Every structure is written in structure tokens, then in C-alpha cells.
Amino acid sequence: MVCSGLLPAGTLLESLIHLTNEVTSGERIPLVQAKNISTVMRRIKLISSLFEEVKETDKPLPPSSILCLTELFSVIRRVNILIESCREGSQLWNLMQTEFISNQFYATVKEIGGALDILPLSLLNLTADTREQVELLHKQAKRVKLFVNPSEIQRRDELLHLMAANSDKNRKNKGFIDFKGIKDILSSIGLKSSLDYKEEISKLEAEAEKQAGTGGLIVLSNIHNLISLISLSKTTIFSEDEHLKTQEDLKKRKMPMNNIRQDQSFSQSMVFNIPDEFRCPISLDLMKDPVIVASGHTYDRNSIAQWINSGHHTCPKSGQRLIHMALIPNYALRSLIHQWCQENNIPMVESTSASELERSTSKRRSCENPIDHLSATKAAVDAVKMTAEFLVGKLATGSLDIQRQAAYELRLLAKTGMDNRRIIAEAGAIPFLVTLLDCTDPRIQENAVTALLNLSIYENNKILIMAAGAIENIINVLQSGKTMEAKENAAAAIFSLSIIDDYKIIIGAHPRAIPALVGLLGEGTTAGKRDAATALLNLAVYSVNRAMAVHSGAVPLLINLLTDDKAGITDDALAVLALLLGCTQGLEEIRKSRVLVPLLIDLLRFGSPKGKENSITLLLGLCKDGGEEVARKLLMNPRSIPSLQSLVADGSLKARRKADALLRLLNRFCSQSQNPVG
């Protein structure tokens, strides 16, 4: 299990210790999600002793440990952000989203268990107590179950009922709104005073701004309804005297916090929105002046300069010894950060002390020649190459347990960038991963197919995967994989490979490929249905594949998906149906549906722009060449003609053209019906 060159941990452990302390020594636990928060804090507390003991040994660690610790850092950081969101965000909105947030806590614990799968405890010099704690956490994480607090669900449902009452009745009927019920709900989540109500309204307004670009009309409507309800309740429940008193309390409460939070206001306000790649690995804040060190990693200039000035000669992220101390500006990343700040209306504060810090390191750099970017990243590339070769060796010669661990590590490594995907392929991983697709061990099969999916994102790897004869094995997993996740990722791999036109024909010609995708379309989870639909959409571009999709039963399943809110693939389902309409078998099968035409008429009114285009394409195709029955249904539906006229006026160019053609066709059909020949 041990390779000749072990990767040092560096200060990754220091960052983990700091982060776990921040999570476990948090302030108050909010009443919403209290059990999930306290449980995840307790579990992270269990693992903190591992980081402290490994740091005290001060010995190089195996690549598996480095990869595991890196994954744990990423997961625990997300836990920290999630807890802060529950603590600082709107409690009412958290209550409305209780199932979604509970799922996030559940997913993070499962990810901790997945990361611990690859931790080589036998190679670490740990005390018996610490080893027992880590093993206990691993077992807990593997068998954890989703917990959604029933009382929170009940309060959420009561709140929805009260929101409906508020939207149905205007101010003059406010006496009919159950303000006592509202007060009880708000009190149960910690909102008891007029001041609490006022702060909650401010948080809801901030949430509305955050959701404006992505949340959708229903989400924004719910938030504004909540603001209206709380504002009305505040005015009704609290007397004017109490309101004046709480204004004074507000001033007293805010004054001591101003000095504490003033410097942190910018970073805290953005903690939920900053992309990870824009954060400095040391400070975890938005990088103002990103620079590259000798290991190839990027940091904010202030943070890394302080690190170097304090006497460190290693990369904080990888632990590698720096072959030089030059800080090379990362102009590409800086440009991306600047663009992101402009798009999100965030002031780009320049680094004020960069010049002084750079001057303080000038002695160290005075005798060094300028280093270009390629030489600066060579050490990082070599480290990934060594890790990839080590893991491929384990795939080739290891036992089932070792292969399971190696496949999982390659799966993680292939997630993290194009260079890693290229290096893993060059190390010879693809043929071994293809062979493992036939393994009877569920975890090995799942890790192998997911690793191939991640590798296939790199264009040249698509060729290597197909050349290794992977498609037969991937289809086997899609059809009869050991886990649903393996089947879903097999479908996603087919989608990725079929981006290349030649492979659309090769994959479609396989007798089991399209039937297996159609099977997942009917039996898969939400994610599986989405993966299957997108893969079918790729394959159906070629006419030879459409008849097979129809013959496999795709049409009724796709029509059912048009009304499946959980799947969320209405546009993809419409796009596949529009393609299947192009073959004779598809047209005949689609015409058999009795529910499709009313659905398409509704989608003309409420669908997305792309959905409206495909809906009109389907209706036009169904009305042509003997589609009198469909035309008659359209003319009998009172919403169809106004919807078509609206598209002619306001739709996209393609939708306007097809809507106009369909209106002319319906007009001719109407004229022929009124003046029959003979």
C-alpha cells in the first residue's frame, strides 16, 4: 500500500484543525434544524482528534491520506457554511426549506463517510482511542438516515396555510387572519419581540434579493408573501409603546456589534456566494490579488506573503517544499474574479499592503531568476502524475479492497480539473477502470463508472475510452448495474461520449443501449431520468436511432415526464419528442396519446421559450398529413388560438414562424370543414 514517494501533509492539517474548532465551538444553535446541526457538530468533534494526532506525528502521509484529508476539508467547510446559513439567515425561510436543508446535512454526512473509505488507518500512527473514534464515525456516516423534523414540517404546513389566508384577504379583512397562530409559529422558531420581527423582515428582504436571478417567480412570490405577513403581524400584535421601546433596544443591541462586524461585513455577506476557486485556500476569503507559488497553487498575495515571511518554505495546500519564493501574478484568475465581482455588483477592493509585503520578500528573491508559469506548475503536475501512477498500480495488482479504494481515489482526482483527467489517462487508468465495470462488488463498479464519466469530460479521453471497448461494459452497468448511482452515471457517461457525432451512431447501433436508457427513463430516480433523457436527446439527433427509441417505449414515458415536477426535465422531454416526431413510427405513436395536445396547449402559455418552440413544433407536425383529429382538438380548445396568436406576436423567431404556419393550417381546415367538397 505504501509508495516510494509519500506526499507531505503541509498545513492542510492546521487548516482542518482550525476549521473543525470553528464548527464545533460555534455560537448558539438555531431552533430550526437544531437536531441536524447538533448531530453534525458532534460527528465533526469526533474526527478532530484524528487531525491533531496526525499533525503531532509530523511524518509524511500516503497519497490516500492527503486525498482523504482534502475531501474532508471541502466537506467540513461546506458544513460550516451551511450552519452559518441556518444561524444568520431568515428563520422563516429556513423553515420553508426544511426538507431541502435536511437533505444537505444528510448529503454532507454521507460524503464524510465516503472520504473515510479511503483513509488508510493501518498506516497512521494513532492511539487506540482516536482509531476507535474514527471507526465509530465511519460506521455512523455509512448508515446515517435522512432526518426531517416532523414538528418543523407541521409548523411549515401551518405557515403555508396562514400565507394563503393572507394572500386571499386584503387589509380590511385582517381580522380573519389567525394572528395568534402566526405568533405561536414565530415564537417556536425564536422570534418573540418586535425587534425579532423587524430583523426577520430585513433577512427576508435580503433573501429576496439573493433569489431574484435564480429562484423563480414562485419562490419570490412566497418570500414577498412572508414579508407581507410578518409586517402585518408586527403591526397588529405589538402595541405602539412596545414598538418604541424595542427601537431603543435595537440601538443598544447593534452598537457593540458594529465594531466587531465592520471589518468582516464584506466577507460575511458573500460567504454563501463566492465560488470556491475564487477563495484563498489560507484565508478562505475572496482573493484580491491572486498569485501563483512554486508548487503551482494560487493564493491571495497578502496571505501567502505573510506565510512566507513567518519562515515557512512549503506550500500551505500541498505541503511541498517551494523551490523558489517568487509570487507570480495569476492574471487570468484575477480577470475572472474582477468579471464576477462586476456581474454581482461587488466592490473589488485592491490589496493595500501588497507592495510592502512584496518588498519584505525581495531579499529572498534578489538572487533568483524570473520563473515562468510552466516551470512554476511543474512540481504540482509531477505530484498528480506520481499519485495517478501509484493508484493505477493498485488497480492492476491489488485485492478487491485495494481496488475499491484506488477506484474511489481516482474518481475524486478526476473531479478536479482537465490536467488531472489527462494525467490519469496517460498513467494508463482507463483500461483497468473498464475491466472493473464487470466487477461484482457494487462500490468498485460504481466508482469505476463514475471515474470514467469524470475522465470523459476531457475530449481526448473520449477517444481512449471508446478505443478501450468501454461501451459494451458501460451499457451492461446501465442495464443491470449493482446500484442506482452506477446506472445513472453510466447514462451520463453515454451522454458525454455521444457528444462526438461518430459515437452517436456507434452507441445507437448497439442493440441494448437505447432500450437501457428508456428503461432508466421509466424506473430511475430524478437524476437518473434526467441523465437518460439528455443521453437520448443526443442519440436521437441521428434518424437511425429514433425508431429504436420509439420501439423501446420512449414516447409514453416522455409524455408522462411533461407533468413530472420532481424530474424537472420538461424541456428535454419535449425536445426528444420533437425529434421522434421526425420518424414515421414516432409520429404514429405520438398521435395515439390523448393527453398530449392539452398539455402542449398549456405549455404554449406557461412553458419556457425553448419549451414553447418544441411544443409548437409538435403541434404543427401532428396537424400535417392526416392530422385532422389533432386540428379538431385544437379548434375546440378555447385557449389554443389565443396562445398561438400570442406566440406570433411575442415568441422567438422560430416559434413565430411555426405558430403562423399552424394558424394558416387551422384556418384552411376550418374552411374545408365549412365547405365540404361534393
From TrEMBL:
<dbReference type="InterPro" id="IPR057623">
    <property type="entry name" value="PUB12-19-like_N"/>
</dbReference>
<dbReference type="Pfam" id="PF25368">
    <property type="entry name" value="PUB10_N"/>
</dbReference>
<dbReference type="InterPro" id="IPR016024">
    <property type="entry name" value="ARM-type_fold"/>
</dbReference>
<comment type="pathway">
    <text>Protein modification; protein ubiquitination.</text>
</comment>
<feature type="domain" description="U-box">
    <location>
        <begin position="273"/>
        <end position="347"/>
    </location>
</feature>
<dbReference type="InterPro" id="IPR003613">
    <property type="entry name" value="Ubox_domain"/>
</dbReference>
<dbReference type="InterPro" id="IPR013083">
    <property type="entry name" value="Znf_RING/FYVE/PHD"/>
</dbReference>
<dbReference type="InterPro" id="IPR011989">
    <property type="entry name" value="ARM-like"/>
</dbReference>
<feature type="repeat" description="ARM">
    <location>
        <begin position="428"/>
        <end position="470"/>
    </location>
</feature>
<dbReference type="GO" id="GO:0061630">
    <property type="term" value="F:ubiquitin protein ligase activity"/>
</dbReference>
<dbReference type="Pfam" id="PF04564">
    <property type="entry name" value="U-box"/>
</dbReference>
<dbReference type="Pfam" id="PF25598">
    <property type="entry name" value="ARM_PUB"/>
</dbReference>
<dbReference type="InterPro" id="IPR045210">
    <property type="entry name" value="RING-Ubox_PUB"/>
</dbReference>
<dbReference type="InterPro" id="IPR058678">
    <property type="entry name" value="ARM_PUB"/>
</dbReference>
<keyword id="KW-0677">Repeat</keyword>
<dbReference type="InterPro" id="IPR000225">
    <property type="entry name" value="Armadillo"/>
</dbReference>
<protein>
    <recommendedName>
        <fullName>RING-type E3 ubiquitin transferase</fullName>
        <ecNumber>2.3.2.27</ecNumber>
    </recommendedName>
</protein>
<keyword id="KW-0833">Ubl conjugation pathway</keyword>
<keyword id="KW-0808">Transferase</keyword>
